[in-house]
Design a protein that fits this description.
Tetracycline Repressor, domain 2, about 70% helix, 2 domains
Length: about 240
């Protein structure tokens, strides 16, 4: 395993506190060897969270279609029997992992956008937090943005929730457009969110997930231009935050 992969694995599995943009959803460390005296509920929760982290790592390496339950249990360092104590199938494990990450991301988008008093800066903050999260957690970026769109209808529904969360934040900018007399088509936000997602996916597929934070100025211009015009959107994109 390369140094980068080791670092990614460690970041994905670490326990976190607080909702800062670079933190992965909390996964517990591996259980101590021998007689640990831990409550049964803690052990069960630990195994489940390790399986979720193990799936994220396995999918990042092989893709959802090629990932097997054996791959997941190997990454999680638990038995196949333990896997079936928590999940009926690979898909159920993926759904659980996806829900954990999606809850974190949607919370992040809304919280960072609402923390700014001006909508354009809220969009910049929200997109910056999202790209920073993905840059720090490339395995979760692939799971969310690439595999979520490919892994079947149940998971695709979860993927749509991320796009919908971004659409909701963008739609708040219609007041900005109306103030300048701009009439936007009803599908503007859906088009913008889809374009941003497509751009992010391409960078992940070309192995550039850890550099996604560098896309912020470009993505902000894409998001804000229909509402503010190109010049104003660029000024926000290049601002210091």
């Amino acid at each position: 395993m390369t140094g980068d992969s080791t670092e990614s694995t460690r970041r994905t599995r670490r326990r976190t506190s607080g909702p800062s943009a670079g933190d992965a959803p909390p996964e517990l460390a591996r259980l101590p060897k021998g007689r640990h005296g831990l409550p049964r509920e803690f052990i069960a929760r630990n195994h489940r969270e390790r399986l979720i982290a193990g799936l994220a790592e396995a999918v990042a390496k092989k893709g959802y279609a090629k990932t097997t339950i054996t791959d997941i249990t190997r990454e999680a360092a638990v038995s196949r029997r333990t896997f079936y104590e928590h999940f009926e199938s690979k898909e159920e494990c993926f759904l659980a992992a996806y829900d954990v990450v999606m809850e974190r991301i949607t919370e992040l988008l809304k919280a960072t956008a609402e923390a700014e008093s001006q909508w354009p800066m809220g969009i910049r903050a929200a997109l910056g937090a999202l790209l920073d999260f993905f840059s720090r957690e490339p395995a979760l970026a692939r799971l969310t943005m690439v595999e979520g769109a490919l892994a079947g209808p149940r998971i695709l529904d979860r993927y749509r929730r991320l796009i919908d969360a971004l659409i909701e934040v963008l739609r708040l900018g219609r007041d900005e457009a109306e103030a300048t007399g701009t009439q936007l088509p009803p599908t503007t936000e859906e088009t913008l969110a889809g374009g941003i997602a497509s751009l992010v996916c391409r960078r992940i597929l070309t192995g550039e997930a850890e550099q996604l934070d560098q896309l912020l100025p470009e993505v902000v211009v894409i998001a804000l231009t229909p509402y503010l015009g190109a010049s104003a959107a660029e000024r926000v994109a290049l601002s210091s935050g």
